UniProtKB/TrEMBL annotation:
This is Protein EXORDIUM-like 5. Keywords: Apoplast, Secreted, Signal. It comes from the Eukaryota. It is found in: Secreted, Extracellular space, Apoplast. Residues 1-20 form the signal peptide. It comes from Crotalaria pallida (Smooth rattlebox). The keyword Signal applies. Belongs to the EXORDIUM family. PANTHER family: PROTEIN EXORDIUM-LIKE 5. One of its GO terms (cellular component) is apoplast. InterPro entries: EXORDIUM-like.
Length: 357
């Protein structure tokens, strides 16, 4: 047999093995294509997790762009000056939990992004900063923690209501750890995992409003978010926890980026509320719908979406590290977070810094 024929026979013999190697390489290739960052210890995935049977605002969810979203500006103020956050830690908080939340808040501002590679928390806030007031002033991209108050004695009990939470703010203001910051201030009340709140777990994971002069003495924008770790993680820390009815063959919970289901879940809710509070602080600025007492705001429109390809049970394309922890943005000091996307007034769609298109 001539040498060319011998070579042909060898190639025919090896062809099935070569095809097998090509197929295996093709299966693995997506992890190395169009990556969100250059860290070899992370990879992308788009987990499918069926939505909760009773979502907190299922009627408000719009997956992807929509011409039916009638988001309007109602001529009220937005937080266009540098934003000062006044933290009220209500109940007993562990120091690592407090540091985790503060690292997230300090990752928002462009002045605190030194160690935050893209996609970053600061990049995520850029979508929020696209909203303007009637003068054309954008929401500020400068966010700082201006003060902290520890209410270790549960001064208003272990069960709060939408009214009594304002008394918590009044206590902090009247004892003068905090100034009355009308122009730049956000008062953020964070309750520990043993504190219950009116409608918590059933209808809300967090909310924002403004204080009544009759309760606090001033009109101040505020937000409340609770730690659901012991009460309803399957609702308010989802998808880091899943309901019992999803067990047995259903999708598994995602691993939280910082190892704390309750607090990692809180971070996304805090981001949601801060975005809405900044764009609608007195409930007369940016929202959809005709009822200002129940507005559909810029976070509501994208609830449950964290990346490209979200919708239909998929949360969108996010990343996981070599330990399997799920995230979509980077923060200061090497922190990682999973933040829901925000409605963009420019794209008229949900948007985030980890988008692939």
């Amino acid at each position: 047999m001539s040498p060319p024929n011998s070579l042909l026979l060898i190639l025919i013999t090896l062809l099935p093995q070569l095809l097998s190697l090509h197929i295996e390489a093709s299966i693995e290739e997506p992890d190395n294509v169009q990556t969100l960052n250059t860290n070899p210890n992370t990879k992308k995935f788009n987990p499918k997790i069926p939505p909760l049977k009773k979502t907190l605002s299922s009627s408000k969810r719009f997956e992807g762009s929509s011409d039916f979203v009638n988001l309007k500006y109602h001529m009220g103020p937005v937080l266009s000056s540098p934003i000062n956050i006044y933290l009220i830690w209500y109940g007993n908080w562990k120091q690592p939990q407090k540091l985790l939340i503060k690292d997230f808040l300090l990752s928002i501002s462009t002045t605190n992004r030194r160690a935050s590679p893209a996609p970053s928390v600061s990049d995520w806030w850029r979508t929020v900063s696209l909203y303007t007031d009637q003068t054309g002033a954008n929401i500020s991209r400068t966010v700082s923690i201006a003060g902290e108050y520890n209410d270790l004695r549960y001064s208003h009990g272990t069960h709060l209501t939408r009214l009594s939470v304002q008394q918590v703010i009044a206590t902090a203001v009247k004892t003068k750890p905090f100034p009355v910051d009308h122009r730049n201030g956000i008062y953020l009340i964070l309750t520990a995992d043993d504190v219950t709140m009116e409608d918590f777990c059933r209808a809300v994971c967090g909310f924002h409003y403004f204080t009544f002069p009759s309760m606090v003495g001033y009109t101040l924008p505020y937000a409340w978010v609770g730690n659901s770790g012991k009460q309803c993680p399957e609702v308010c820390a989802y998808p880091f926890a899943v309901p019992g009815y999803m067990g047995g063959g259903g999708p598994g919970k995602l691993s939280p980026p910082n190892g704390d289901v309750g607090v990692d879940g809180m971070v996304s809710v805090i981001g949601h509320e801060l975005a809405e509070l900044s764009s609608n602080p007195l409930v007369n600025a940016w929202y959809a719908g005709e009822d200002p007492t129940a507005p559909t705001e810029i976070g509501d429109l994208c609830e449950g979406l964290y990346g490209t390809g979200g919708g239909g049970g998929y949360i969108g394309e996010v990343m996981k590290d070599k330990e399997g922890r799920t995230f979509n943005v980077n923060g200061r000091r090497g922190r990682r977070f999973l933040l829901q996307w925000i409605w963009s007034p420019v794209l008229k769609a949900c948007a985030g810094p980890n988008a692939l298109d």
